[in-house]
Design goal:
526 residues, alpha/beta, Urease, subunit C, domain 1, TIM Barrel, 3 domains, nine-stranded mixed beta sheet, 19 helices, globular
């Protein structure tokens, strides 16, 4: 199959200025780029791209598509925003290695799937027939669950650390791009320094990347950043700080200090960078509002404890006091007003979907903390929230930094989601390029070649002869993000074509359902 994009305005992903050209795709590859135009090309489907921008497919550095790739292989919510590659297994949350018979976990982040019938990255990746290109990290949680006897919410023994290192070694040999942890989440938050350094020594040996949702993004953000930078300094591992931000109105002034610390490490010669999603509000599990000592419990014990808070006022007061006066962890309920914490979707209590916690409190005629404990005690499935955590000024400051690259942090847990899950890439282009007049070439670089450079993927992220034909064609005059929290999956305007490995996944603005993506592996990146 050959496709000729005629008279396109090419933004090639490098950050260089746009140029007019014809671009010829044959099979899976860009074979010719002609600024003077191609006179004829037999057997090619011709796309009139006059007045439109042709650029590389957008690359998502921070994804949670692990199970969505199995549930919905054509990945329409990525394709409808022009994303042709994503990197999953972030925040220490993943799906392998896995022991058959274990109960599935992490459904608050990655949703449900009944048959976890793989054992390692190799057997998991063999199940995939994806509509986008995808890469993966080895998640810390799965290493801990496999290696630690009993409840993994504790410090590991030397023998258990060795077992984790061996499992990580296998995943990296099988093609994972690196290792991720979420020191904000159980069970990763219980890892000691010895464990983390041991795992990072394996990552360094394989020249993988270390992606981290660090411990505190709120009041203690500066010591939390120092912690992960110290791991980089001790091991020399390449560090990717996940969804960089400061949580809470009072902490926005700390963003310049965070960036200063990161750049100081760069000046010392360490490979440190970060990704960002383009919204002032984030999204994660509603259960993450609970204190670490509560989250330490097994799922069944946590459910029992929450049920007990209905009758045990002393227990309830103790938990609430810890949430109101946190020590060494981010209590989002203390950092954000209740009006800024909203329920995206609850599996067991859908009547609260779309309400903020102040409205839930009023509906239940309870104080907000009591209302939170009450609805969590009823929840037997997923509970996803959104929270307004940043200012527009700090969001823009992080975006403008040369070390930033694009990520969505997309979550696919149920019938509702944060708009970033289906529109994050278009939202970034619309907000920055259409409304604020940043140049398309500077923004698209952060969404394409900067991600491929970080992951050392040589043949994607650029419109160049010999590169794979992952391409997006859009009209800058009509491009618009039509989504909001009430309509997160609403399709954008102005996106005409998306091509994955030379096959149209979106054609004339319509999804084709194609599954032409590939699982990209670290050992195959050259």
């Amino acid at each position: 199959m050959s496709v000729l994009f005629r008279n396109a305005t090419v933004i090639d992903g490098s950050g260089e200025r746009p140029f007019e050209a014809d671009v010829l795709v044959r099979g899976t590859t860009i074979v010719k780029i002609c600024p003077e135009g191609l006179v004829t090309q037999q057997d090619a489907e011709v796309i009139d791209a006059t007045g439109k921008i042709l650029c590389p497919g957008f690359m998502d550095m921070h994804a949670h598509s692990d199970l969505e790739l199995i549930r919905n292989p054509s990945m329409p919510y990525k394709i409808q925003q022009g994303i042709t590659f994503d990197l999953s297994g972030n925040c220490g949350i993943g799906v392998y290695p896995w022991r058959r018979g274990d109960e599935p976990r992490f459904f608050d982040i990655i949703g449900h799937y009944d048959s976890w019938d793989w054992t390692d990255f190799k057997t998991y990746s063999e199940k995939l027939n994806p509509g986008i290109n995808c890469g993966f990290l080895q998640s810390h949680s799965c290493l801990r669950i496999n290696a630690i006897e009993g409840n993994p919410n504790r410090e590991a023994t030397d023998e258990e650390i060795q077992r984790m290192c061996s499992l990580l070694e296998t995943s990296l040999e099988q093609g994972c791009f690196g290792f991720s942890t979420g020191l904000y989440y159980a069970p990763c938050m219980y890892a000691g320094k010895k464990e983390i350094l041991a795992l990072l020594s394996v990552v360094k040996r394989h020249d993988g990347i270390f992606a981290v949702h660090h411990r505190c993004e709120g009041d203690d953000i500066l010591p939390s950043i120092d912690e992960i930078l110290s791991y980089t300094r001790e091991t020399g591992v390449r560090l990717e700080i996940s969804h960089l931000k400061a949580i809470g109105r009072k902490n926005q002034a700390k963003v310049p200090l965070v960036l200063e610390k990161i750049h100081r490490m760069r000046d010392e010669g360490f490979d440190v960078a970060f990704d960002q999603y383009p919204y002032e509000y984030g999204s994660t599990s509603l259960f993450s509002l609970l204190p670490p000592d509560v989250l330490r419990l097994s799922p069944n014990d946590l459910s029992d404890l929450l049920e007990k808070t209905k009758h045990d006022s002393q227990l309830r007061t103790s938990i609430v006091n810890e949430m109101m006066h946190p020590h060494g962890w981010d209590s989002i309920s203390e950092l954000c007003p209740w009006e800024d914490i909203s329920i995206v979707t609850m599996e067991s209590s859908p009547e609260f979907n779309g309400m903020n916690m102040a409205q839930v409190s009023e509906t239940l005629s309870m104080e907000p903390y009591d209302a939170l404990l009450h609805i969590l005690s009823r929840e037997k499935g997923y509970a996803l929230m959104s929270d307004i955590t940043q200012s527009s000024g700090s969001l823009r400051m992080i975006f403008e930094d040369p070390l930033m690259c694009f990520g969505t942090d997309a979550l696919y847990t149920g019938p509702f989601a944060h708009p970033r899950s289906a529109n994050g890439a278009i939202h970034l282009l619309y907000e920055r390029c259409i409304k604020e007049r940043y140049s398309f070439e500077s923004v698209i670089r952060k969404m394409t070649s900067e991600v491929s450079r970080r992951l050392r993927i040589k043949d994607r992220g650029l419109v160049r002869e010999g590169c794979k034909a992952d391409l997006v064609l859009f009209d800058p005059k009509t491009l618009k993000d039509n989504s909001d929290m009430a309509h997160p999956f609403e399709r954008c305007s102005g996106l005409d074509y998306v091509m994955v490995n030379g096959t149209f996944a979106l054609k004339d603005g319509k999804l084709t359902g194609s599954i032409s993506g590939r699982v990209l592996k670290r050992k195959n990146r050259f």
